[in-house]
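Hello, quick one for you while I still have it in my head. No rush at all, and the record is pasted right below.
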Amino acid sequence: MGAGPSWTDIAANTIVFSGTGGIAEPVTVASWQDETHVGNGDPGTDQCGANHPNNVKYTATNSMELNGGANEAINDTNVTADECTLQVVFTHGSAVALTNVRFYAYDGTTTTTPAVGVDCVAFEQGESATSWTVINDETASGALTNGSIGGDNAGERAELADSPSATDHTYYIAISASPETVGAKSAFDFGLALTYS
């Protein structure tokens, strides 16, 4: 997670999307999060410390608000690597190349099943993208109206860039979420999969 003096390992904690007012403040159905936290449960207590995650909020397919700021286009200029929600690092003992890299939302049990009751979008920084990718839309009743999108399925996940041979590979990802229904969303996790050689 970012937003502080350095990136911090989330460890066994969870990413929590909330409304204005702290980790336990719910997000209104069909609205997007106003704050992003790290909690020790669903949501649990705030574990952010000095390194509070940046809040990159979806406002439209091609736009966002960063940490409550003005609405602006989503692109590599307006969302720098250090302003993303997540930094994901893949490390290997010898140099390997990465292909078929993908980031997805799922129900926490079956990687090909959408997260329950959630709309979610992602943006990979550093690849000249100018729009969000929908990675979860369980039903057509929330902020998004696609329905039945999510999990590690082609066309339902964020396809990340291949990475040339190295021992360390780093990805920067902005994430925004919205509830489709009232209540906590415990069947909502993220996954990243890849092939290395």
The mean pLDDT is 94. The two ends are 28 Å apart (CA to CA).
